[in-house]
Design brief:
nicotinate phosphoribosyltransferase, 2 domains, 19 strands
């Protein structure tokens, strides 16, 4: 259960001031990405399961309250309020696996301004990591062109929690499994693994290490062949493959982790096939990402599947999202919701309670998105669905496999240009006429009022 103190201090200092001056005020906040990162033409919504779990269990424990008393920032009546704190608002969100774009609300929160403010940091943190990874992993899957891809990122992830969330996000995006055993246990993701160079080096001869491993795991052996001399390692793997074949077992595969993968994969495929081991798969790993995988495939590498670690698990070329959480409406002294917006140069936001509509063309493909006011009549599918009502979770969480299938189908509805490795295509995201007009009028009114 996430701690209620997983938030920034200013969420609580603002909350105390709200408690003193705006206790009965309600507001709506939008969570969205301001700009797409480098090399991204789309993003994939991810992290909703953790957000709903957080909302359901959000409580300030006795120890939390003791700590907050100890830092001598907060009043006793506010501490008493926190002891009874529950989120009682409404949340709308895009289901996990939904493709989304810049300036589209991915999550919309309406409730007490104190409650909506307190949950801000957790929502931002969760979406930043998981949507970032799911989007990167999706690009890797597309680059592999149907070849299985596996997550090998745990040892390079930014902390153990990220090491568990990355495999889930990658699996949603289309990865076939993970090396992280805990992620396998928590989420039911298939676990996979081979051996390390240290295993091979712990034996006097490479062939001895291969033989020992194959005897231990006669039905799931994948041999790492590049510890010393890769071509000799491949030849030793062939010998083990023939040994297993002789005892009615099968060598599953070999793994190439360094060197000229293209030529080595061709050498390996020829050697394996010549020995009657055409069933043995060739895996590749070692600093792979969508760009390197595309390069290998385009160069004719005979690789059956890929293990991807650091570059995916840290989204190395785009390691963060410009994800923000901004107020879009607030109640007045009569309890009526009034639209509001930010006017900062280069950071102007859109006011009011909004919905995102996805519009198809005559061929049934996604043609454009329209960000509009919630009650506008727009011909298109609304992407935000209600997941929390008056603090109660009303969304039925799909299985991980169902989310994965939804992600694949969602992506298939877009043109191929959206999925290119170095995108030059900007999917149309339009602002409705009424929302534009509201923004124009409110901008002038706010500027005059200030």
């Amino acid at each position: 259960m996430p701690s209620a103190l997983l938030l920034d201090l200013y969420e609580l200092t603002m909350a105390q001031s709200y408690f003193a001056h705006k206790k009965q005020t309600f507001a709506t906040f939008d969570l969205f990405v301001r700009e797409l990162p480098l090399n991204r033409s789309y993003l994939i919504a991810c992290g909703l399961e953790d957000i709903l779990s957080y909302i359901k269990t959000l409580r300030f424990s006795v120890k939390d309250l003791e700590y907050l008393k100890g830092i001598k920032v907060f009043s006793s009546d506010f501490i008493a309020y926190l002891s009874r704190f529950r989120f009682k608002g409404d949340i709308w969100a895009m289901p996990e696996g939904t493709v989304f774009f810049a300036n589209e609300p991915v999550i919309r929160v309406t409730g007490s301004i104190i409650e909506a403010q307190i949950i801000e940091s957790f929502l931002l943190n969760t979406v930043n990591l998981q949507a970032m990874i799911a989007s990167k992993a999706s690009r890797v899957v597309l680059a592999a062109k149907g070849r299985p891809v596996y997550d090998f990122s745990f040892r390079r992830a930014h902390g153990h929690e990220a090491g568990i969330k990355v495999p889930r996000s990658a699996f949603i995006a289309g990865f076939e499994g993970t090396s992280c055993v805990e992620a396998g246990k928590l989420y039911g993701i298939p676990v996979t693994g081979t051996m390390a160079h240290s295993y091979v080096m712990s034996f006097k001869h490479e062939l001895d290490s291969f033989l020992a491993y194959s005897v231990t795991f006669p039905d799931r052996t994948i041999l790492l062949v590049d510890t010393y001399d890769t071509r000799k390692g491949i030849e030793n793997a062939v010998r083990i493959g023939l040994f297993l074949k002789g005892i009615k077992r099968r060598l599953v595969g070999i793994r190439l982790d360094s060197g000229d993968i293209v030529s080595l994969s061709k050498f390996a495929r020829k050697a394996l096939d010549k020995a009657g081991l055409d069933h043995v798969k060739i895996f590749a790993s070692g600093n792979l990402d969508e760009f390197r995988i595309k390069e290998l495939i385009d160069s004719g590498a005979l690789i059956d599947s890929f293990g991807v670690g650091t570059h995916m698990g840290t989204s190395v070329d785009a390691p963060s999202l410009d994800v923000i959480y901004k107020i879009s409406e607030v109640t007045d002294e009569h309890g009526d919701f009034l639209p509001t917006m930010k006017l900062s140069k280069g950071k102007v936001t859109y006011p009011g309670r909004k919905q995102v509509f996805r519009v198809k063309d005559s061929r049934g493909r996604f043609a454009k998105d329209i960000v509009a006011l919630e009650k506008e009549k727009i011909k298109g599918k609304p992407l935000l669905v209600k997941v929390v009502e008056k603090g109660r979770i009303i969304y039925k969480q799909p299985s991980l496999e169902a989310i994965r299938t939804f992600t694949r189908k969602n992506l298939s509805g877009f043109t191929g240009r959206l999925k290119e490795k170095s995108p030059a295509y900007n999917y149309p995201v339009l602002i409705s006429r009424k929302l534009k007009e509201l923004r124009r009028k409110l901008s002038a009114e706010l500027a005059k009022r200030q």
